[in-house]
Structures are given as structure tokens and as C-alpha cells.
Amino acid sequence: GKGAGDEPPPSAPRAEPAAMSTEEKIKDIEAEMAKTQKNKATAKHLGLLKAKLAKLKTELVSGGKGGGGGAGEGFDVSKSGDTRVGLVGFPSVGKSTLLSQLTGTESLAAAYEFTTLTCVPGNLYHKGCRIQLLDLPGIIEGASEGKGRGREVIAVARSSDLVMMVLDAGKEGAKNHRGILEKELEKVGLRLNKSPPDIVLKMRKTGGIKFASTVPLTRLGDDPERTVTNILREFRVSSATILIREDVSVDDVIDVIEGNRTYVRCIYVYSKIDTVSIEDVDHLARLPNSLVCSVYKDLGFPDILETMWSYLGLCRIYTKKKGSPPDLKDPVVLTQGRGGRNIEAFCRQIHSSLLTDFNYALVWGKSAKHSPQHCGLKHALHDEDVVQIVTRTVAQQKADAAGYAARAQAAYDEYKAKKKIKAKGLRS
Fold it and tell me: 199-203 and 240-244: which strand pairing?
């Protein structure tokens, strides 16, 4: 028989498979998407993969190392002026020189990379408006994952009303910096020169998913409703109403569900054109949303200013008091991106109390059919209009009994609170 020493040794415990990191999961999904043929039959499967990929990328950007904790030292620049423009680009492409040329602000410029290490603000005055320009440090491939302080730079870019992507004309043909930067900004939810998709999504507590569309959907596979439903379920949405009003893609649906995308205009500025041939300059200048310039030769700066003004959509509105000429020195500047360009936005920018007592507005200018025109809060204003706000009379306010009583009580409470604070200050 077998002896005690003949028994086989006990088998070692089987090692548990190591949990995959978020980066590994992203690579696996990207590899599967690359192998999958793109056609209507696979659209549903690809849509599900894209939804999983978007979730993982959001998790990587928001929850990864260094993902939170504010803007970072040197990047916390308060908004000033009427609008904000962020200069982004690879290191040593001429951002600092461009800022100095446009604003007169000294930002360290040199022939080596990573000269600018923090956010350098400058102010530009154009057509009576103050535009804040931010010279951001150069960003590199992998910036969306935090390489080279990329997250801080991109966070400031997200807060800008316009992104100015500065590119080196001499390096663009070989290195495709434009495509690399677009991908990095796309990964963190920045959508350049795009409009939000016309999709209405309303979350509900019960009732399942209700799908409707007003146009034929050709980019969501053979069964668009099933594709959209699967994407919603991947994001753990079990009850919602979704209405699609344009021919959208899977990426557009995911953008709406996640709800953290920033849609911003972008100008591509190719600098150092004195280092390339005239044929290359002509090719770059004809690309969409593109401009060319040279600091050394002092070329292209008037075009940059005018294009910047056009893309920002600034609207200067002059105020007028009853019986007085309009004040043409200090306009109220409205932008489409910061609250709109109508009477309501104009009142809110001056003081919110104007909305409470608003009766009507008298408007002179391009937006008025006749001068002056009586307008309501939703009237769209044009650049260089003149506006006079007419508030409700005391009799009109008293006619609105409930509203008048509430406002009177609020005013009295505010007066009592101020009196109490003043009395405490005197006692102390």
C-alpha cells in the first residue's frame, strides 16, 4: 500500500484573476470596436460599446489621481471683462508671443518648450468691450488623463467663451497637432464648433422608457428605439421620455445622457507662417475656422480680432434714461453664451430687481421695427441697440395684490435685518 509519504502534496490555492484597471477596460472596448464592422446590423452593438466607453472615460477623468481638488496653483484666475478667450496649444507654438502682441501683457516667451508654467491673463479692449485672454501652458498628448498639468489647463479652457487653438504652421503637416488636441479636448467633454443635439430627455420615477422622434433616424441602426433604450439602460436609466428632433448619432445621445458636455466655439490660429511656403499658407488659411499669422512679419492680427469678435457674438447695448440722451460711453455687453441677448438678460445684468417691476422696454436700433418699439422680456436685441426700461407704476403694483404684499413684506424684513445688524455693531 501507499505510505504516508506517498500522498500528493495539497494543491496550492488557485490565484484569483486580478481586477482590470479602468485603462485596461477602455483598451479592451476600443480593441473590440476596432474589430467590429460598421454597418446597420452592428449599430446597436457599437452603440452599447460606446456607452460603456463613455462611462469609463468619465470615471477615469473625474475619479482618477489628481482628478479633483480645484483648479491647481497658478490656474485660479477670476473672470473679468465682458468675455473670456483661452489660448491652448502644444508647447512652444507662439501662444505667449500672440498674447503679448494682442494685449501688451508680458508673458515669458523663449525658444524652449514649457516656458509658460501657469495661467497668464491679459486684457484686450476692442470696440468698447473688454476681452480677457488667458495664455495657458502647453498641453501634450495624454493631457486628458492629467499628463503635463493637462487637466488644469483643460478645466480653464472649459470655462472660456471661446477657445483659440494656436498651432505651429511649420510642424502641422508632419505632426497633426490639430487632430491630437481635438481628441484630447473631446475626451473631457469639450465639443468644438458644434451645437447641442436637438434631443429632449426627461427622467421619470416610473413608466419605463418612452421613445419618440420627429425625423427619420439613419445613424442609429435598423432599430433606433432599441439602440437608444439599450444605451439608457447602460447608464442605469429605466424610466425616461426621450424625444429626438434631428438625425443624431450614438455619440450625440450619450452626450445628452451624461449632460456634462461644453459646447464652445474654436478658432484655429496657425502661427509662424513666415517659416513655410506660400502654398502651405494658402492651404492652412482655407481650412474651416482657421486663420494664419506671423508675429515676426506682423501679419494677420486684424483678421484675428475681427474673427474673434464675430465668434464671440458680443452685443453692445446702450442705456437711456427718460428725457435724457443715451449713454454711448459705457455699454452693457451681452453674449449668447452667458445668458442670451434679449431684454431679460439685459435687465438681469444690470440688476435683478428690474425684472420684478418690469412693465415694458423702449428699443431703438436694428432690432426695432419702428423707433421706439414697445418690447417685452423675450425681445432679441442686436448690437448697438438703445434700451430704456419702463417700470410699473405704484398703482400697477398695487393691482397685483398678492405680489405687492409679498414684496412689501420682503422689503420690510430686509430693512429690519439691516437695522438689527447696525444695532449689534453699535453695541460692540
Answer: antiparallel
Provide the 3-class DSSP secondary structure of residue 327.
strand
List Cα–Cα distances, 129 to 49, 83, 190, 267, 363, in angstroms: 46, 9, 26, 19, 21
Q: The C-alpha cell of 97 is what? A: 508671443
Pairwise CA distance, residues 232 & 250, whole Å: 11
Instruction: Answer whether 385's CB lies under 8 Å from 366's CB.
Output: yes
Three cell numbers, residue 250: 450614438
Question: pLDDT in tens for each of the 428 residues of the chain?
Answer: 555 555 555 555 554 455 677 778 888 888 888 888 887 778 778 888 888 888 777 776 665 444 444 444 444 566 677 888 988 888 878 888 888 888 866 554 444 344 445 677 788 888 888 888 888 776 756 656 556 556 677 777 788 889 999 999 988 877 888 998 888 888 888 899 999 999 999 999 999 999 999 999 998 888 999 999 999 999 999 999 999 999 999 999 999 998 888 899 999 999 989 989 999 999 999 999 999 999 888 888 889 999 999 999 889 999 999 889 998 888 999 987 777 899 999 998 888 888 888 899 999 999 999 989 999 999 999 999 999 999 888 777 777 766 767 777 888 888 888 888 877 766 65
* % helix, strand, coil for the chain, step of 5: 40, 20, 40
DSSP state letters, 337-365: TTT-SBHHHHHHHH-THHHHTEEEEEEES
pLDDT tens-place string over residues 173-213:
778 889 988 888 888 888 999 999 999 999 999 999 999 99
147 with 64: CB under 8 angstroms?
A: no
Report the C-alpha gap between 36 and 298 in whole angstroms.
50
301-312 vs 95-103: helix crossing angle, rounded to 10:
90
SS3 string, 114-155, reads CCCCCCEEEEEEECCEEEEEEECCCCCCCHHHCHHHHHHHHH
Cell of 74: 497658478
Q: Rounded distance, CA 164 to CA 85, Å?
A: 7
C-alpha–C-alpha distance, residues 338 and 192, integer Å: 17
DSSP summary character for residue 15: P
Q: Is 218:188 a contact under the CB 8 Å cutoff?
A: no
Using only C-alpha atoms, the chain has a radius of gyration, in whole angstroms, of: 29
Query: Cis peptide before 372, with omega less than 30 degrees from 0?
Result: yes
Q: Cell numbers at residue 170, please? A: 511649420
User: What are the start-end ranges of the H helices in 36-83?
Assistant: 43-63
